[in-house]
C-alpha cells in the first residue's frame, strides 16, 4: 500500500462511484478497478460491493477507509513538518473560504501575502460556510474563513462585521415590505434563520416572494434593476449609493450583525506558512480591501 492507494480509498468513499473517482484522480476506470483489486488481494478481503446506486463498502472496507484518512493526515503532517524545518516560508497552504470572501476579499489578500512569501502555493476550496467549518474540523484544510457565528472550539479570529439590511432601488418604509416583491436567494442556514426570525417577529403574514435566485450577488443585481427588494449583508451593496437600505434590528433595537471569522486548529500554526498567514491576516483592515 502506498499513498496513492490510501487516496483511492478516501476519494472512493467520498464519491461512492467508480467513474467519478477515476475522473477525480485523473486515472482510467480500468486502472482504478485494477488498483482496487490489488488492495483487496493485499488484505485478502472484499472492500466494496457494486450496486445500481453506486458502490458500498464492506465492514472491512469501512475500516480501511478510516485507516486511509488517518494515514493521509499523518503523511501530510510529515511533509509539512519536514518542510517546516527549512528557514524559508514555503509549502502549499490549504484554505477553505465562503463564496463571498472568495470573490471579493481573497484575491487581494493572497496577492499581498504572496508579495511577502512568494514561495507559498495555495489550494483554495470555496463553498457554504457550514461546509467550510466541517473541513477545518476534519483537518482537510489548514484555515477556514466563514461568515456567521458557528460553534468552534479551536482558535478563531474576527475579521470584520457587517449589517444585515433590507435593500431596494427606491425609498421605502419597512411596514410596506409584506406588499412588496422580495428577491429570495440561496444562503447558509444561519443567515436564513436570522432573517426568518426577524420577519416572523415583525410581520404576521408571509413575505411576497417575487423571484428566487441562486446567490446574494445575483439578488443584488436584481435589486439594482428595480425588480424587488432583498435582505442582504451590507458588504454586498457597498459602493452602490443608488440603493436604499434599512438595517434590521433585534428585540433590543440593536442592528443585526453578520460576522466573518477565521477558524483554525492551534497546532497547525506550528507550520511556518500557516503561522505567518494567520499573523498577516489578523493585521489587515478588511474594510479597506
Automatic annotation (TrEMBL):
This is Transcriptional regulator. It comes from the Bacteria. Keywords: DNA-binding, Transcription, Transcription regulation. Residues 1-58 form the HTH lysR-type domain. One of its GO terms (molecular function) is DNA-binding transcription factor activity. The keyword DNA-binding applies. CDD domains: PBP2_LTTR_substrate. Belongs to the LysR transcriptional regulatory family. Pfam families: HTH_1, LysR_substrate.
Amino acid at each position: 500500500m502506498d499513498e496513492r492507494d490510501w487516496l483511492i480509498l478516501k476519494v472512493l468513499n467520498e464519491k461512492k462511484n467508480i467513474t467519478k473517482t477515476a475522473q477525480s484522480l485523473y486515472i482510467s476506470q480500468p486502472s482504478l478497478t485494477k488498483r482496487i483489486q490489488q488492495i483487496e488481494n493485499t488484505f485478502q478481503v472484499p472492500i466494496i460491493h457494486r450496486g445500481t446506486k453506486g458502490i458500498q463498502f464492506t465492514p472491512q472496507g469501512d475500516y480501511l477507509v478510516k485507516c486511509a484518512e488517518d494515514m493521509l493526515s499523518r503523511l501530510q503532517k510529515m511533509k509539512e513538518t519536514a518542510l517546516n524545518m527549512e528557514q524559508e516560508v514555503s509549502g502549499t497552504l490549504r484554505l477553505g473560504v465562503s463564496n463571498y470572501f472568495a470573490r471579493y476579499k481573497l484575491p487581494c489578500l493572497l496577492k499581498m501575502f504572496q508579495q511577502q512569501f512568494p514561495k507559498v502555493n495555495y489550494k483554495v476550496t470555496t463553498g457554504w460556510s457550514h461546509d467550510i467549518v466541517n473541513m477545518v474540523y476534519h483537518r482537510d484544510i489548514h484555515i477556514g474563513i466563514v461568515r456567521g457565528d458557528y460553534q468552534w472550539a479551536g482558535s478563531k479570529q474576527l475579521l470584520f462585521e457587517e449589517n444585515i439590511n433590507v435593500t431596494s432601488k427606491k425609498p421605502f418604509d419597512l411596514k410596506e415590505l409584506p406588499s412588496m416583491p422580495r428577491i429570495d436567494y440561496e444562503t447558509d442556514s444561519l443567515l436564513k434563520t436570522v432573517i426568518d426570525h426577524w420577519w416572523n417577529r415583525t410581520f404576521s403574514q408571509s413575505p411576497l416572494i417575487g423571484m428566487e435566485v441562486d446567490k446574494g450577488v445575483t439578488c443584488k443585481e436584481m435589486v439594482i434593476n428595480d425588480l424587488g427588494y432583498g435582505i442582504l449583508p451590507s458588504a454586498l451593496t457597498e459602493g452602490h449609493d443608488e440603493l436604499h437600505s434599512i438595517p434590521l434590528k433585534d428585540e433590543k433595537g440593536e442592528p443585526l450583525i453578520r460576522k466573518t471569522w477565521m477558524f483554525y486548529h492551534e497546532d497547525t500554526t506550528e507550520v511556518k506558512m500557516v503561522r505567518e498567514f494567520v499573523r498577516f491576516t489578523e493585521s489587515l483592515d478588511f474594510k479597506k480591501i
